[in-house]
Design a protein that fits this description.
homodimer; mainly alpha; Potassium Channel Kv1.1, Chain A; Serine Threonine Protein Phosphatase 5, Tetratricopeptide repeat; 3 domains; 3-stranded mixed sheet; 12 helices; BTB domain-containing protein (chains A, B)
Chain lengths: ~240, ~240
């Protein structure tokens, strides 16, 4: 028989679907693609401007702004204000919402000071709240994750975690493990821990390990506990299958 | 052979795909579904609040607003202001953007008067600009299409046209044809015209036809021209196929 999709001949043992199911699957695929187009169009409508070009560093300048954010932490002189809208910040972050709705210093003065952040990271953070997009590298992903956790911008936090998970390897797994623990990033924590578990033989020889034992020994204990727990579980699974 | 999808037996003449193509199609479907989930999450993040409940009529009250829109046209006393943000209006509508960026009466006074619109339609229009959602019935779809055309909110116009096309039938096709012509709604125009073409035998007997001949005879001419053109095309296609 000839496959209607790849047009190759196939035999009974390689049988896939009947024609009816194939046609249904094609229709489903078309419907899903239409739904994707509609959602993309919605995103285009709702974001305030198109995401910035990868090569240019120019963020759009919003108009009718009513608040500025100031980065402090660059360690290099005058902070440059990042203009924004209270309404946008409040709708993306419950922390900003509380800050701005109650008559706190920030809402009255029209300036929100953000500590321990670079100007670039702050601009990227604000831009994200208008476009749901950010241009990530490993440093930016860390900086944005910290901000996302601090201001409870869940969508951004998830975005950064996904990126950082994609960049995980044995060499950076401990650093990521410590970082994710510090900033309550559960997905990244689980992924780093998992990678460490697969490389326990190399663990105690690494520089990062020695530093972590000094800096946060309880975190190291957590690794060993997880490892032991995994061994116990694997052993009991083996028992169950030999008995069965 | 058994279909891996519906588990039914099928014969050679009902063959669909081979197993490899079936598995590839399943993976593609999974990828598309993941993409849909990510896009839905992005929409959730970017809209200002969740769409209103179908049964309740309560729109969210935005905070930190800097402009109000006033409906005039209800014909029943004091206009109730609809609060909004210049930044949101300007990002969704080039007409609002021009109005607000230049020092026109509206941007200076902080009030935008909208004529010939009901309060309900205006609230729904503003709400759309924050959520990309609207609760449509046939009246609301017309009202919102008019506003969308006037203020060049393309996404909303498309949304209304789609809805109105879904409600097209012979009885309302002429009214829709005239309406779409008046408000430059090409998709709706083409769809109404197409339906009229399929019902030319009933055309001259309908009340709407007689009214339209009185009100806008050139529009009626357009219908006949399209009809004639269609007949000529169909005739020449027939010629081509008989010759071939």
């Amino acid at each position: 028989m000839k496959c209607v999709s790849c047009k190759e001949d196939y035999t009974r043992c390689d049988a896939g679907t009947c024609r009816e199911c194939y046609e249904e699957a094609s229709e489903t695929e078309e419907e899903l693609k239409r739904e994707i187009d509609e959602l993309k169009s919605k995103v285009s409508f709702l974001r305030f401007w198109a995401p910035l070009h990868q090569l240019s560093n120019r963020f759009a300048t919003p108009c009718f702004t009513d608040v500025v954010l100031m980065a402090s932490g660059d360690g290099c002189g005058e902070a440059v204000p990042v203009p924004a809208h209270k309404a946008v910040l409040a709708s993306r972050s419950p922390v900003f919402r509380a800050m701005l709705e109650n008559e706190m210093v920030e809402s009255l003065s029209g300036t929100i000071k953000i500590s321990d952040v670079s100007y670039d990271a702050l601009r990227a953070f604000v831009n994200y709240m208008y476009t749901a997009e950010a241009c990530l590298d490993e440093q930016m992903a860390c900086d944005l994750l910290v901000l996302a956790e601090k201001y409870q911008v869940k969508h951004l936090k998830t975005y950064c975690e996904k990126y950082m998970i994609s960049k995980l390897n044995w060499e950076n797994s401990l650093v990521n493990f410590a970082f994710s623990h510090q900033h309550n990033a559960k997905s990244l924590l689980d992924a780093s821990q998992s990678l460490i578990m697969d490389n326990m033989d190399k663990l105690s020889k690494s520089e990062e390990y020695k530093e972590l034992v000094e800096k946060d020994p309880r975190l190291v204990v957590q690794i060993y506990e997880a490892y032991l727990s995994k061994q116990v579980n694997t052993a009991s699974l083996k028992d169950c299958s030999t008995k069965a």
